[in-house]
Amino acid sequence: MHTLRSQAAAVPRAWLPRAVGYACLLIGLLDIASAVFPRLRHSRVHALAGQLPGGTTTLEAAGTLMVGVLLVLLAHALRRRKRRAWRTVCVLLSTSAALHIAHGHQIGPTALSLALLVVMLIHRREFYAKADPRTRLRALVNLVVMGALSVVIGLVVVAVHTHSATGSPGLGEQLQETMWGLFGFEGPIRYNPEGTEEVANSLGALGLLTALTTGYLALRPEKPEPELTPEDEAKVRALLERHGGRDSLGYFALRRDKSVLFSPTGKAAISFRVVSGVMLASGDPVGDVEAWPGAIKVFMAEAREHAWVPAVMGCSEVGGEVWTREAGLDAIELGDEAIVDATTFSLAGRPMRNVRQMIKRIERAGYSCQVRRVGELTLEEKRKIADAAARWRGTDTERGFSMALGRFGDPNDDDCVVVTAHKAPEEREPGATTGDDLKAVLHFVPWGKEGISLELMRRDRTADPGLNELLIVAALQAVPAMGIHRVSLNFAMFRSALARGERIGAGPVLRAWRGLLVFVSRWFQIESLYKFNAKFQPEWEPRFLVYPSTRDMPRIGFAALQAEAFITLGMPKLGRKRRYESLMPNTVTGNGSETPQRAGAA
């Protein structure tokens, strides 16, 4: 009945990968502690560690330290059923057993290591997941992380053995001893013979482990990060041409930092990105609704093959029903999308009084707007808009995933609509053009033949208040002449909770939930987006988050925040603004914006 649940039931021991992973983590920590602190090797704790697979009281401290660090590093991958991690653990267990036999020590640890090895071999089908997409940048990240970890552990090793040293070495000398020891050289500290060997072996093992893991990551075949190939893009565009009017988020499947999977018939597709082990899709599948189940089955099979957590951000109610029915997933309402009917929009009436007054005030200040297709812009105009957008963004991290295209001015996106606001200077310099007084820009992507969807809103931070309202009103008034009837504005997270919580008769729980959302709005645009959208009297269309189980929600939430760039990990990206501008003249990227912005499911 439910595909995901039936397949989970087919696994004889679904708990095994988690048990092995946590066991590796525990054993690794015990091994590191027993190698770093000599007293533990003569305590009951170390005696217990010696009976566990991968740990021993009889191996040299350096070997125990290396095994412990590797087990800690592999614990998470084992919990995710990674095949490569399973192979490495099998090698470690075999090596541990061989070392026990070679040194002529007790049979107990050897038997336990071999017993666990046999269990893992018998249940090898539990560890089937392929590796995640990778690049050689991970080698650099590993060098930094492992190097820092080795320095910290090395400092502890040196500090613990200062009682065996001559004199009283200070922190500076201990740091020098650690750094020299990681590279296999003697440092300034002098130990007695026993202490010298133990410190040198431990530091050398840490340095060797860092070098080996970094070298492996650097030399292994590179697997590129997800990207939309030209062939896949052409197929997705063909599907959007026929079925693009179903979902306002459909065009965002053309982001080129996403991968795409097609149904067996090729009539439907799902775009996604893998973030922190979460296979994250956004919006509804693209294409024929009848072919959605086939695309969902392909998506779920890919997730199982790599042991990724499947999740969908911002799908419609129809899409959520199909996902829950075909994949056995659950769904929760995430927020509402503001959709305005451009053919009936009007500034008349009391509800629009504030917007009407704001528009008149900003027009008296000398602002005017232009609404055009991107294909109508000259190359020079595209360049000026791109430069202004990059300048207004400053050094802020570019945000967007589920509701952002990530580029501007691409020749393939000529059907997009751009709205620009200008303010003519009191005295125009000779040769100046309207592009010199550009103050704000809106960028809409197609939503079928009769709709557009907002993906970027950016303005000069020195411009007068009310400019965003002027841009949206100008767009709503102009697009009907282009044959556009529907305009999708910002996405408002938890809108229904905010709306119900401020009504008369709202209960204490609902009021408390609204109060929490208002508090969080200090850092995330939640209440501000809702109030901004409500000015234009839109229709609210609910959007949903689809997920496997409640225990996966923290992980999915963290991955969503990463995808939307509210949380950034990894090495600093220097020169972001310069890289943004260098992509002209053919294309311009960028999706960040200041309040209000097209918000994703973060």
Report the span from N to C terminus.
31 Å
Choose one word for the global shape.
elongated
Q: Percent of residues in helical segments? A: 40-55%
Low-confidence stretches: 1-12, 42-50, 52-59, 428-435, 571-602
Explain the overall architecture:
By secondary structure, the chain is α+β, with helices and mostly antiparallel strands. The protein has 20 helices and twelve strands. Strands 1, 2, 3, 4, 5, 6, 7, 8, 9, 10, 11 and 12 form a twelve-stranded mixed β-sheet that branches. Strand 1 (259-262) and strand 2 (268-275) form a beta hairpin. The longest helix is centred in the middle third of the chain and has 27 residues, at 193-219. Residues 1-12, 42-50, 52-59, 428-435 and 571-602 have low confidence and may be disordered.
A few lines on this structure:
The chain has 20 helices and 12 strands. With 602 residues, it is an alpha+beta fold.
Write the layout of secondary structure elements.
Elements: H1 3-10, H2 16-36, H3 44-50, H4 61-79, H5 83-102, H6 107-122, H7 137-160, H8 171-182, H9 193-219, H10 230-243, E1 259-262, E2 268-275, E3 278-282, E4 286-287, H11 292-306, E5 309-315, H12 317-327, E6 330-341, H13 353-364, E7 367-373, H14 379-393, E8 417-423, E9 438-446, E10 451-459, H15 467-478, E11 486-493, H16 495-501, H17 508-520, H18 527-534, E12 539-547, H19 553-563, H20 576-582
Parallel strand pairs: 3-5, 10-11
Antiparallel strand pairs: 1-2, 2-3, 2-4, 5-12, 6-11, 6-12, 7-8, 8-9, 9-10
Helix pairs in contact: 2-4, 4-5, 4-9, 5-6, 7-8, 7-9, 11-12, 13-15, 16-17
